[in-house]
């Protein structure tokens, strides 16, 4: 049996209210994040126009108002019931479990309409990788809603029994420990799934990074072998020869380790006789070729994958948030590639 709080020392009694106040603030902030995600997906699923602004929508205003209520009412419940620690504990868990349960139940309409939402995206020719990411999100979200129910329902049972004059569940040590343990498992598991949803693993990026690392290693070994002095170099001039200015950017740069580390952008088109690549239309060009038999093979002009994705996004009736749904890790990779291009074009002095 745990020691009753009436027999605690005075410093421990004084720590009850501050700790519960911090606990309610943390719970309120958790409801703020859940409400933001709920409002965002409700906005995205129900958005009827591609030009609809998230910051001017009713869902965004609902999130702002609900966040202020969640941050305010949770600590107020603890403050008004601080005279009796057991009563404070019961009403604190009652307020938190009711708020989290209402948010969890509001996720059920999203789970119900998400399959039809995915079918609509397929009919609008949305990128396949975006469809895969959204499908993975839907599957993980179903598991997360299930574990959130496991998290809030046992706490709700304990809270309702705690505010009653005759307590039955809280007086039984087995059911108290069992329900508390089940709620802890649901809280930890749902939080872990949330991290997986917010920061999904990008297998494609990992494979590209691994292959680029191997190629850099092989290129560096190849450069070291080529730079080793030979017998014919003993009579060479001690002064190093300068590289001609016209070779600042030649075809040999494509085989340098930097080229393997950051591949050229799709929008780069190299022009003959220029020292640096120029920006051209995002298209892949294949010139006319003459075969050995004398037959001329006509060239082709086709859009790159990036340009085709941008064209599909402009022509689609789906909200742009859907096309841009990606991992924050992928956004950092895109920013790093853009920074590398600016450095190569204009030099490091502007960065």
TrEMBL record:
<keyword id="KW-0472">Membrane</keyword>
<feature type="compositionally biased region" description="Basic and acidic residues">
    <location>
        <begin position="225"/>
        <end position="234"/>
    </location>
</feature>
<feature type="transmembrane region" description="Helical">
    <location>
        <begin position="145"/>
        <end position="163"/>
    </location>
</feature>
<feature type="transmembrane region" description="Helical">
    <location>
        <begin position="20"/>
        <end position="43"/>
    </location>
</feature>
<keyword id="KW-0812">Transmembrane</keyword>
<feature type="region of interest" description="Disordered">
    <location>
        <begin position="208"/>
        <end position="274"/>
    </location>
</feature>
<feature type="transmembrane region" description="Helical">
    <location>
        <begin position="63"/>
        <end position="81"/>
    </location>
</feature>
<feature type="transmembrane region" description="Helical">
    <location>
        <begin position="93"/>
        <end position="114"/>
    </location>
</feature>
<keyword id="KW-1133">Transmembrane helix</keyword>
<feature type="transmembrane region" description="Helical">
    <location>
        <begin position="175"/>
        <end position="199"/>
    </location>
</feature>
<protein>
    <recommendedName>
        <fullName>Transmembrane protein</fullName>
    </recommendedName>
</protein>
């Amino acid at each position: 049996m745990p020691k009753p709080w009436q027999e605690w020392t005075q410093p421990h009694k004084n720590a009850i209210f501050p700790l519960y106040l911090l606990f309610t603030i943390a719970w309120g902030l958790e409801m703020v994040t859940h409400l933001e995600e709920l409002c965002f997906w409700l906005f995205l699923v129900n958005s009827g126009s591609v030009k609809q602004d998230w910051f001017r929508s009713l869902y965004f205003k609902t999130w702002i108002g609900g966040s202020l209520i969640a941050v305010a009412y949770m600590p107020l419940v603890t403050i008004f019931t601080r005279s009796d620690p057991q009563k404070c504990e019961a009403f604190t868990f009652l307020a938190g479990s009711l708020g989290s349960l209402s948010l969890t139940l509001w996720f059920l309409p999203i789970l119900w309409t998400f399959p039809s939402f995915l079918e609509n995206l397929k009919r609008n020719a949305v990128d396949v990788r975006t469809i895969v990411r959204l499908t993975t999100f839907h599957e993980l979200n179903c598991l997360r809603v299930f574990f959130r129910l496991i998290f809030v329902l046992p706490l709700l049972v304990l809270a309702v029994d705690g505010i009653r004059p005759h307590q039955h569940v809280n007086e039984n040590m087995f059911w108290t420990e069992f329900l508390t343990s089940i709620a802890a498992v649901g809280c930890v598991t749902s939080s872990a799934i949330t991290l997986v949803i917010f920061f999904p693993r990008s297998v494609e990026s990992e494979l590209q990074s691994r292959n680029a690392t191997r190629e850099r290693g092989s290129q560096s070994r190849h450069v070291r072998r080529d730079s080793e002095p030979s017998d014919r170099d003993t009579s060479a001039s001690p002064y190093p020869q300068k590289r001609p200015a016209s070779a600042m950017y030649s075809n040999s740069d494509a085989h340098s380790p930097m080229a393997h580390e950051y591949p050229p952008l799709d929008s780069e088109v190299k022009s003959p006789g220029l020292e640096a690549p120029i920006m051209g239309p995002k298209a892949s060009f294949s010139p006319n070729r003459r075969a050995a038999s004398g037959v001329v093979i006509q060239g082709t002009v086709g859009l790159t994958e990036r340009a085709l994705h941008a064209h599909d996004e402009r022509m689609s009736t789906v909200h742009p948030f859907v096309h841009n749904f990606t991992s924050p890790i992928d956004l950092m990779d895109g920013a790093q590639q853009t920074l590398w291009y600016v450095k190569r074009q204009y030099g490091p002095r502007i960065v």
